[in-house]
Design a protein that fits this description.
It contains seven helices and 17 strands. By secondary structure, the protein is an alpha+beta fold.
C-alpha cells in the first residue's frame, strides 16, 4: 500500500522527517540563483519487491556534479545510497521517482557561495509515464529555436538546476506552439537532445544517437540502451547527427530516467517513418521494461533491491 502524499517522509541532512516539516527560508541561495543540483532516479516494482535502477551510477553522477560545482555534500556515496533506500522503504513505495537534491541553504542576498551551508534532501514520489497517455501513441516534437548550452557556458555533464532553464525555455516554446516537447540543436547546429532526455534515431536497422561532441548529457538510460541493444545484436552509432536526419529517420525516441523510452512519431509537423511507433522502438522498450522489473538475469546487477 502506498502512503498518501500528506503522510510522506523525506530525508534532509541525515534525518528522516515528514515532508511538511522539511522547510527552507524563502531567500535560500539556490532558490534565488539556481545554484542547486539534483539527480533523477527510478525504482520499479518487481517480484522480489521494489528495486532501484542503477543506483550506484546515479549516486556517482550526483557526486561528480557536486565536484564540478565545488559543493561539499558532507556525506559518502554509501550514506546517500542507503538514504535513498530508506526513503523508498519508509514511504512503502513500489514504482516511484526519487529526487536527491543538494542546495545552498543560506538566506542571504549575494552570488558568492563560499562558506554557505549545503543541505542535502531526498524525496520519493509515486510516478507513472512522464508524458502521460501520450507515450502510448508517441509524441510530437519540434526543433527548438533555442540552442543547447555547451561546456564553455556551463558544465553540461552536471545536473545543475540552473542548466535546466535552457530546457524549460525550449519545452515552453514547443508546448505553446502545440507540440509535446522539443529537440535542441547544439551551437554547431547538430542534433543534441530533448529538454531532459537523450534522443535516438533508427535508420535502416541501425540505432543512432548523438555523441558527446553535441553537448549532450551522458544519460544513464542512454548508456543502458546502448549496452542492452548491443547484447541483443542491435548495432549502435554514437556520432554527430545532422538536423535533416531527423526528417528521414525510420523511427525516433527519447530516452531518460523520467521519460524511459518514449516514441517520437512526428517532428516539425512531419511524420517520423509512417507516423506510428516503430518495431525497434517497441522491442527496446519491451527489453527495458523487463530489465527494470527484474526479468532479465543478464542485467540484474543494475538493480538494487529495497529490503
Amino acid at each position: 500500500m502506498t502512503v498518501s502524499r500528506s503522510d510522506s517522509v523525506v530525508w534532509l541532512n541525515g534525518k528522516i522527517m515528514s515532508e511538511k516539516a522539511a522547510t527552507v527560508p524563502i531567500l535560500t541561495h539556490s532558490l534565488q540563483y539556481g545554484s542547486g543540483m539534483f539527480e533523477g532516479i527510478r525504482a520499479y516494482a518487481t517480484e522480489n519487491g521494489p528495486a532501484v535502477f542503477r543506483l550506484d551510477d546515479h549516486i556517482k553522477r550526483f557526486f561528480n556534479t557536486a565536484k564540478m560545482k565545488s559543493m561539499d555534500l558532507g556525506y559518502t556515496r554509501k550514506q546517500m545510497s542507503d538514504a535513498v533506500i530508506e526513503v523508498v522503504k519508509r514511504n512503502k513505495l513500489g514504482s516511484c521517482y526519487i529526487r536527491p537534491f543538494a542546495f545552498y541553504d543560506d538566506a542571504h542576498i549575494g552570488m558568492a557561495t563560499e562558506g554557505k551551508k549545503v543541505s542535502v534532501f531526498i524525496a520519493a514520489v509515486p510516478f507513472g509515464a512522464y508524458f502521460g497517455s501520450k507515450k502510448s501513441n508517441g509524441i510530437k516534437c519540434k526543433v527548438s529555436s533555442w540552442r543547447r548550452i555547451n561546456s564553455n557556458i556551463l558544465p553540461v555533464q552536471a545536473k545543475s538546476s540552473g542548466n535546466y532553464v535552457n530546457s524549460i525555455m525550449a519545452d515552453t516554446e514547443a508546448i505553446e506552439e502545440g507540440f509535446d516537447s522539443a529537440v535542441l540543436l547544439s551551437e554547431s547546429g547538430y542534433v543534441s537532445e530533448g529538454p531532459a532526455e537523450n534522443i535516438f534515431l533508427v535508420k535502416d536497422g541501425v540505432l543512432v544517437t548523438p555523441s558527446v561532441e553535441s553537448d549532450i548529457l551522458l544519460g544513464i538510460t542512454r548508456d543502458s540502451i546502448i549496452h542492452f541493444a548491443s547484447y541483443n545484436g542491435i548495432s549502435t552509432e554514437e556520432r554527430l547527427v545532422r538536423r535533416d536526419e531527423l526528417y528521414s529517420a525510420d523511427e525516433m525516441f527519447f530516452a531518460g530516467t523520467a521519460a524511459e523510452i518514449t516514441p517520437i512519431t512526428h517532428i516539425d509537423g512531419k511524420k517520423v517513418g509512417n507516423g506510428r511507433i516503430g518495431s525497434m522502438t517497441s522491442k527496446l522498450s519491451d527489453i527495458y521494461s523487463r530489465i527494470v522489473s527484474g526479468k532479465e538475469r543478464e542485467f540484474s546487477g543494475w538493480l538494487t533491491y529495497v529490503k
